[in-house]
Design brief:
Elements lengths: L2 E7 L5 E7 L1 H4 L19 E5 L5 H4 L5 H11 L8 H8 L1 E2 L4 E2 L14 E2 L3 H13 L8 H7 L8 E6 L2 E6 L10 H15 L7 E7 L2 E7 L12 E3 H5 L10 H10 L3 H17 L11 E5 L4 E4 L27 H10 L4 H21 L1 H10 L1 H17 L8
Parallel strand pairs: 6-7
Antiparallel strand pairs: 1-2, 2-3, 4-5, 7-8, 8-10, 9-10, 11-12, 12-13
Helix pairs in contact: 7-12, 9-10, 10-12, 11-12, 13-14
Bound molecules: adenosine-5'-diphosphate and magnesium ion.
């Protein structure tokens, strides 16, 4: 057991919480802090007064919009944030990640049972019916057990194929078409990979023509299928107000706690540049995380995830040189200085990102042109990506 949480509901609706690591945990040579910034390992009692009563790292274990809808449908409970502590106890083991919660000192209940990847077709249909009318469906068990823990808003489920574990994201009935988002996210991840950013293995699944799901291999699975703990930058930064927060805020945390800050800061910078280039504007702090690597006995930036060119949002969530739109090459380089990168290194990283996105664009050209022909928003998106690439390329006359 890592630690204990005590809490008291206050008359004003807030919750006073106290957290302390178990002495057996602190004394274990393999122990690690659940949050290296806000809950460093030690014997201190941490205190918090908030609406949810939970430190960010514990809230991370709870689902967001999608999983909460499933929990509400299955258990008919209050799924608002003020009921987060009860939801955690109901969740038991939370996946992805490695945390589990119990109201006693007994081990948590509720092991996650992932769906078999071969069931993707049925799962897409179940997700569709559920989105149409959450009250009217009886959900397959794998949907609750494998689907209600992961964060994020889009329909998804945890799945396995043999011994390999995946996160599978489905089309939503709110998408312009049921193949669009899977294909766009696959392109987004391909851009990151081409730019040399670590990305988990991923592939699209089209169990029936026109409906595309995206499977991403889980990065929190270690040797012999053990789970690794990770937490979002929302928890690490410890803020709920993230609109316009500089990307460099995450770089500061990497410098402070990463086991390999040089590599991680470079990769985060490239990820920022790719996000700008491909209009991945839903770049909020839950879409970036750090994971504990037992081999290194330290935290690292996770591989990139949820990199989706965005059809609707006009502004980024995080800022680059204090801007959330109309970001230029100069802004990227200025943010590079805030990352404490030399101008030379920032330039190289921007150029690597531009080359990566260009290559991915060429690789996906046929499919992207087809999507643009089908959908006006997609056509505009593709134009914007091409315009960004032209604007962010090195100025004429400079090669590196
Ligand atoms: N490859 C992965 N391995 C483990 N956890 C992941 C992986 N990809 C995403 N996650 C976790 O699942 C959450 C939801 O995934 P995400 O792709 O962000 O979905 P959404 O588009 O609904 O936001 C993420 O916030 C992250 O915590
Ligand atoms: Mg997300």
């Amino acid at each position: 057991m890592a630690g204990r949480l005590l809490y008291e509901h206050q008359a004003d609706g807030t919750i006073h919480s106290y957290f302390r690591y178990e002495s057996s945990w602190v004394g274990d040579p393999d122990a690690f802090p659940l949050d290296p910034v806000n809950l460093p390992l030690g014997s201190e009692v941490f205190r918090l007064r908030s609406r949810s009563g939970l430190w960010g790292v514990l809230e991370d274990a709870l689902p967001d919009a999608w999983g909460r809808r499933l929990l509400q449908a299955r258990h008919g409970i209050d799924v608002s944030r003020r009921n987060n502590i009860d939801l955690l106890l109901l969740t038991g083991w939370a996946e992805p990640g490695a945390t589990g919660f119990s109201g006693t000192t007994a081990m948590p209940a509720g092991l996650v049972r992932p769906m078999d990847l071969d069931m993707t077709d049925q799962a897409i249909s179940a997700a569709e019916t559920f989105e149409q009318n959450a009250d009217a469906v009886s959900l397959p068990d794998f949907f609750i057990s494998g689907g209600s823990s992961a964060g994020g808003a889009r329909p998804k489920v945890l799945a396995r194929s043999g011994t390999v574990l995946y996160l599978v994201k489905f089309p939503s009935i709110n998408d312009p078409s049921p193949h669009l988002m899977g294909l766009l996210e696959s392109f987004g991840l391909a851009c990151a990979r081409r730019a040399g950013i670590p990305v988990p293995e991923f592939f699209t699944i089209e169990p029936r023509p026109g409906r595309v799901a995206l499977a991403v291999r889980r990065f929190d699975i270690g040797k012999r299928n053990g789970r690794h703990h990770f937490l979002s930058f929302q928890s690490l930064v410890g803020t709920e107000e993230q609109l316009g927060l500089p990307y460099a805020r995450m770089a500061g945390i990497l410098r402070q706690v990463s086991a390999d800050p040089e590599t991680d800061i470079g990769n985060l910078f490239k990820q920022m540049v790719v996000n700008i280039l491909i209009c991945n504007r839903d770049d909020h702090l839950k879409n970036f995380s750090m994971i504990f690597d037992p081999g290194l006995a330290g935290y690292r930036l996770t591989p990139a995830y949820d990199m989706v060119p965005n059809l609707w949002q006009m502004q980024h969530v995080l800022s680059v040189n204090s801007r959330t739109r109309d970001i230029t090459r100069k802004d990227l380089l200025a943010e590079g200085s805030r990352f404490a990168l030399s101008t030379r290194r920032s330039r190289r990283l921007v150029d690597a990102a531009v080359r990566g996105v260009r290559t991915a664009l060429a690789d996906h050209r046929r499919i992207l042109d087809q999507l643009a022909a089908e959908n006006r928003l997609c056509a505009r998106l593709l134009d914007n990506i091409r315009r960004n690439l032209a604007a962010m390329a090195p100025p004429a006359g400079r090669t590196a």
